[in-house]
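Researcher: We're teaching a course module on how sequence relates to structure. For the next exercise, students receive a sequence and then see the predicted structure as tokens, so they can try to spot secondary structure elements on their own. Here is the exercise chain.
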Amino acid sequence: LQINIFICDTISLIKMQRNVNSKGSYHNLCALAEAGPGAGEPQISKQLKSRLADGTKTSRLIIVANNLPLRAKRSVDNSGWEFEWDEDALIAQAKEGIPSNMEVLYVGSPPVEIAPEEQETVSSLLKRKFSCSPVYLDRDVKDKYYKGCCKQQLWPLFHYVLPVHPTSTRRFDPDLWQGYIKANKTFMEKVVEESATDSDFVWIHDYHLIVLPSFLRKRFNRIRCGIFLHCPFPSSEIFRTFPKREELLRSLLNADLVGFHTFDYARHFLSCCSRMLGLEHETSRGSITLDYYGRSVALKIMPTGIRPQRYLDGFEWDEFRWRRGELAAQFAGKQVLVGVDDMDVFKGIELKLQAFDRFLERHPEWKEKVVLVQITNPPRSSGKDVMEMHSYVTDLARKINERHGTSTSFPMCYLERHVPLHERMAFYSIADCAVVTCTRDGMNLVPYEYVVCRQGPDSDTSSAKEGMLIVSEFVGCSPSLSGAIRVNPWSIEAVADAFHAAIKLPREHRRLRHEKHWKYVSHHTVAYWAQSYVADLIKVTKDHVSMKCYGLGLGLDTFRMVALDANFRHLEERLVHMSYLNAKRRMFFFDYDCVLAAFGTSGDSTSSGLQPGQTSSSVSSPGSFSLAPSAALLALLSRMSSDPSNAIYLFSGRTKADLTQWFSSVPEVGLVAENGCFYRPIGSKTWIPLAAPHTDLSWMELTKPILQQYVESTDGSCVEVKESALVWDYRDADPDFGSWQAKELLDHLEDVLSNKPVEIVGGSQGFVEIKPQGVSKGQALELLLLGAAAVQGPVSSSSSASSSSSSS
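Model: And here is the predicted structure for the students to work with:
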């Protein structure tokens, strides 16, 4: 007699839901799948057709940033705009590292406000001469997006500033957030307008456009998209304070490659993913990846660099030579310290000056032998904090000269103006030490510029080719400068000691440290950084063309893109229905804990104690919400079991008592408890042990005190005692501490129970379970199938059952 088997423990669906909140729109997967992968994506774009017809490059990199790398000014006759490349713009310099077979297109806001009647002309000009596609934002949207959300909310967040005051402008404002969303959508529309989808790569820059990857992924499921954050990424304790934290995280994960300057920033990002989304990273051959809905999201940790040749070429400029000679004469016989900073609350200028004041107090013999040149760019904003900082710094610089200066010498040279490149290079080239005391900065390229200017070209015999660096440990460039004196800028004493150590260091030591820095800076250029990033982006996305993609959800907070292997076959409902009708006997095997309980419990399924990503062997903790089935689920099971051709079995990690109580109203449903230890046949009230006869359970008394010890030392954990197994559940504990304790517990139990007939499982899914050897759901399933075959004859599976089984 033929028996069609429908195995409904759909692990493929569980994997899709792994490590995510249950509020996503998982229920519409089948409906979306019927439309086919990538449904709704446009066909090959007009731009790509045009390029193919012209025989030009078919690979293109679209670089998206808040601003285009251009400078603008009105024409002499005021008839229009004139543009030129901004050589200081990082994304413009990065073009040198882009592969030669790639066309580069820039997308961003123009550097000036363009009148609506001039926008079409300007767009045509920029596209033709600069390969730039401008994004135009309404004044109101731009103010809310940039001045509001970016500068008042995101920038402080990423720099560890919390809006503790109730009237602070840094408090979250939904109206500003909507402006941020609208601006990002406008950028998305421009990228979509220019993109050729499958053949193009998109490289997004910085925190201004964090949610752009989600909008692009929703529009083009297979888009090859990377993002690089040029700002710090805060620790999870800071990041979690932002009301839209999950939207930001998920948007970053909708990129294929997420770049950071330092491992610290990447580590904080991974911690946020673990604590807020339940995602755990993997490392392989030096790479760090996160599995997000079937797609591998890679992390790139690499500080950017500068373009050394630009500074070396500047040594031939007449204005540079003149200014350097003038400064060398002005500071002859003195040790020169130089600092170059924007007037900003995070640059630590006041801390630098306080430390210099302390240094002169402790070492008065240096008052006429050392000078600190502080170059401060004018404030970019008129905020209260910046204005107060500006007033304090200028007053402190004046007091230092009054306190420690003489009639012929002043130890403080404070310049508050725009310093052109040639003059800045001149200051670098004559300075014995550069000082950076930022309290928080994403990268800061001042030390790199200083190193190049101290090195000079080979033809310049006057270059010292030596130098010292004092660098804050809170800036992104600090890890790459191993010869620098790293300081905590908040410690005035430590920075003062660093001043003294730097100027007292022998020249030979300065030369050796400089050589080490020059070797790094000359190799890790901005072109090298761009080349490495784009190479990784190409590598990470090489299989995108073959992916089967299904979009779930609508809003920014619910959208998910599920990526499946090219060999994945969708189980067609029509074939299942036909097999069901044609079968004389049908067997259904349902996993209760992770399938039915997630969608049909009487309690809140999101708080049921089951965490995303756990297997069906996990159990809820005693303190969690009940996993009791809902009335609707019981009615459905009763209806299915009333058909004499159907045989229904539920598998669970719960105890016999729980399952007996929950399913007493449906006696025609077979039950398997404690992950295969016990079995209750259909229509029976008697539980049958499936473990080996006379199983030794003496290990339980030995294990209980050990588990209780870990409960007492791990807040949020608990022990569940079953008839044949013990479970230590730490899903409500701190994720990191719980994981550490689980590893320790596994080692502990393996030592204690090494000679016992037990199996220890878990440790990475929120629980550790100790159970008898030879017991599992798979073995229970095999026994049930063998029993059915013995009674009914050989078991054969229909085509629909085969698809389901392969998915399981």
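Model: If you want an answer key for the exercise: The radius of gyration is 33 Å. Confidence is low (pLDDT under 50) at residues 1-45, 51-55, 603-624, 795-808.
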